[in-house]
Write a structure and sequence with these properties.
A hairpin with a 2-residue loop joins strand 9 (about 300-305) and strand 10. The strands form two sheets. A five-stranded antiparallel β-sheet has the order 3-2-1-4-5. A five-stranded antiparallel β-sheet has the order 8-7-6-9-10, covered by helices on one side. By secondary structure, it is of the alpha+beta class. The chain is globular. The longest helix is centred in the first third of the chain and has 43 residues, at about 35-75. It has six helices and ten strands, in the order αααβββββαααβββββ.
């Protein structure tokens, strides 16, 4: 995915706007806009590029260092739990380094001492010890601060930066900064003709290239939100309370992703204070599991005690509690 988005940006966000501009625009020796309009365009372009550069720096560096610091904090201050391994899958074996990439399902108590199940994938650097076979017990450390991700780690987990990956990130960031500076310098030198920035238009590469990057970032964030982990749901899973909820309605919303339907549950339940709530939960369900989704009776949910309208159904396929 990283390679795909890198290629996409390098093709559609950089040469494409410049090619369109050079093919459709003639070199103007007179101003295209008034001073006011040109400075509005200049301000818009600077705001767009500033956001784009901050986005890349934040996601390529700041979030990485923050995650490493959070893991160090959990190792020192995390809440210990014994976790039972319910499932094990070997994703990939690297014979050269003798390291397995594995996926396991763990069962342990969350911060409210509620038993939850959680899936995680990581590198097993000692596969010969078979520490993660089904039925084994391992120690996990819960993050006491649920405002930060990750919410838990394996006890003794070690982290280090990927050298090649960091070099690539530095190169990409330097390239982006150089590209933006070069874009302004080149076109100002070539097209200003002592009229300042009055050559700018919306379709000019200085603006349109930034707009293409901005659209790419928006689409990327939408895809991440739909197909990758939902931090809001994980926060409820690790810090929420459980309850038996009565199913009011179960229906399909009409939305499908990769032909998988989205199901909407409307349920009623009482929180730990005895107060009644009605909440809605939406979830994409695999077609193979659609028949096992309960339609009536009661179902186990978890909710945010500070905002009981926020709920999750941790196990979508479960027998209704009649």
């Amino acid at each position: 995915m990283i390679i795909f988005w890198a290629i996409y940006m390098l093709v559609f966000c950089i040469p494409f706007p410049i090619f369109i501009y050079t093919m459709t625009s003639e070199v103007a020796t007179e101003p295209r806009n008034s001073v006011l309009v040109s400075y509005i365009y200049l301000g818009i372009s600077l705001a767009i590029w500033l956001y784009v550069l901050i986005f890349f720096i934040n996601n390529l560096f700041l979030k990485t260092f923050k995650a490493k610091n959070t893991i160090s904090h959990i190792l020192s201050n995390g809440i210990s739990r014994n976790a039972k391994i319910l499932d094990y899958k070997l994703i990939k074996y690297n014979a050269k380094s003798n390291i397995n990439i594995i996926q396991i399902v763990l069962s342990f108590q969350n911060l409210r001492n509620i038993f939850i199940e959680h899936e995680m994938m990581f590198h097993d650097i000692k596969p010969q010890e078979k520490r993660f076979n089904v039925g084994n017990t391992v120690k996990v450390l819960l993050n006491p601060d649920t405002s930060q991700d990750p919410y838990f780690i394996l006890a003794g987990q070690k982290t280090k930066f990927n050298g090649i990956g960091m070099v690539f990130r530095i190169f990409f960031t330097v390239f982006m900064i150089a590209y933006v500076i070069g874009l302004y310098y080149y076109f100002y030198t070539k097209e200003s003709f002592d009229f300042g920035w009055r050559f700018l238009t919306f379709m000019h590469p200085i603006i349109f290239s930034g707009v293409m990057f901005l659209l790419t970032i928006v689409v990327y964030q939408m895809i991440i939100g739909k197909f990758f982990k939902n931090t809001k749901e994980e926060r409820i899973l690790f810090a929420g309370r459980n309850a038996d909820a009565k199913i009011i309605t179960v229906s399909q919303t009409g939305l499908t992703i990769n032909n998988q339907p989205q199901i909407m549950f409307q349920v009623s339940f009482k929180d730990f204070k005895g107060k009644e709530h009605i909440a809605v939960y939406k979830k994409i369900v695999d077609l193979l599991n659609l028949a096992s989704v309960p339609k009536e009776g009661k179902i186990e949910i978890m909710y945010d005690e500070n905002d009981p309208q926020k709920i999750i159904i941790p196990r979508m396929s479960q027998e209704p509690i009649l």
